[in-house]
Here is the input.
Amino acid sequence: MNFSVVIPVYNRPEEVDELLDSLTRQSGKNFEVIIAEDGSSEKCDGIVQKYVSQLPVVYFEKPNSGPGLTRNAGAKKAKYDYLIFFDSDCIIPEHYMEYVSFYLERNFVDAYGGPDNALPSFTTVQKAINYSMTSFFTTGGIRGGKKSMDKFHPRSFNLGVSKKAFEALGGYGKMRFGEDIDFSLRLLKKGFGTALIPEAYVYHKRRSTFRQFFKQVYNSGIARINLHLAHPGSLRLVHFLPSFFVTVMVLSLLLSFFYPVVVLAPALYSLLVLIDSTARNNSLRVGFYSIAAAWTQLFGYGAGFISAIWKRLILKKGEFNAFEKKFYE
Here is the structure.
């Protein structure tokens, strides 16, 4: 099989350099690369030029419209029948294309997703954020871990889809956040199959600071309510857990002034995160940072979720995005 790799980019030339370098090292060479510059002020055209002799790469610029519509623009330039989308902050292991080809040639599916991981070279904050996005104590371990062929929801940082399915859906919608879940939900509604390919993992840098991470997860909380309104029935009990966590922990801290023993609840949670992350990352330092990452994730997502419930479901306001003007930062 041949693949068209589509990468939307906004002000990330250094990341694109690392990503393209990792693609030159692929054991499988059956792909082209399409870089879609989404109205960046810091362009990566000079970086791309470094790799034109090593990769079949197409570069083009367009006005800023967000990642979903930028992926659509890139897909229009694809010459192969299977698309692979990566975020610009990913590094691709050498075996990736080979494993995907092997899987799809034997178990073809219209869309697949793969897990994310952290490299030893990542910063302590990036490793802690990676932990919080994949841990049982934060997401329940469900991100990238569900193998159901008909229910798995691929995420756009690492997603493959046949051009036939992509065109049947009309590509991504206009949502700036949650656009990948919207895409997956529409895939399933159209009857296309999805799968998790565990070997098709990527090294995902995510955000570099807790401030950036908070913005990201706050938007994710908002997006979940927007998705609920766009896809009735998609909201599950598990999506309420971060807001429930926020409520319980705030009450625990307030009650601790009168009943000091109550403070054991947040302390115990933090201890569990510390032990688990330290063991997984073999680093006590990452373990301590993971406490901050876990609380940032749950409070950020929970706060965005509660805010969206109030504004969209109670006040009946139109769709909105937090930090829209700073979406990529």
Q: What stands out?
A: Residues 144-150, 325-329 have pLDDT under 50 and may be disordered. DSSP finds eleven helices and ten strands in the chain.
